[in-house]
Write the structure tokens for this entry.
Amino acid sequence: MIAEILFLSRQDLMALGIQVKDVIAQVEDAIRQQGLGQVNQPDKIGLHYAHDGALHAMPAHIGAQNALGIKWVGSVPTNGDRGLPQTTGIIVLNDPTTGFPNCVMDGTWITAMRTGAVSAITAKHLAPKRVDTLGLIGTGVQMRTQLLALNEVLKPQAVKVYDIRPDAVEAFVTQMRDLVDVPIEAADGHRGAVEGADVVVTATWLFPPNNPPIEKAWMKRGMLAMPIEGDTMWQPDTYLTADKYTCDRWASITDFAQHGWFPQGLPKLHAELSEIVAGKKPGRESDAETIVAMNTGMAIEDITMAKLAYDRAVEQGLGQKLPFITAADEIYQF
């Protein structure tokens, strides 16, 4: 056997024993490498094939981690009506020496875990020193890992959560109370989740904004706001007048704008997250600063997590091995 491919299902990934703190550390190292100019990460290749459907190809190479690969991810916001997750994908890892694919794995679990980690990393640098209340809007897959990761770094005293679906809030609270050591309660509407909160995360539909509900007047002075879905939920003055506006990659924000987001124009960028993590630009400089951080996701976050999972799977002997090339002369046979 010259080459084989390891297949890792979601069940395989969950069996690896990867903890939230492991994900945060792994992703933060990749983002730091980006800030130091040590990664190769082209812009996302996006295919918007319908009003509510998109596919993105996200390749990356992180030399210091010997990590090379691509994520192929689909996003259909109306999947919720079908009882399906909005975001799904697969990741292919390649051997940097030969270029051969050596692993194919579920990308949905990876996406959820790394997205929560990115918010935790952002909060480490941009949240106020004291976080009494964490506000959450949206109770899908993403918000579960948001809470897991943010609880790891912020240790809030209380969590308020809102979703337009009361049954989804109830299910979220029931599940997450067993996973985090912080009181969680349902908020009364969007305003109830935002007012008084020190950090607010929204993870809802990935649609261009149409009458976004969150008003600037609801935002506590010094708040860190982290909209995972761009400006879908946030009125323009919430980010246009923020003391600092950051993102993980500005090119992705401008791409959003070309597809209907930010109808009143783009905010002034303070820094990309990698610049802050690498120490090239300051994070929070005062508890009075109101900061909006819109992280839309980067390939390095997926590939670094995939490499961590692959290495552990090899060590533990997990996954299914699939033949790729059995003999050298095989490639000349037709």
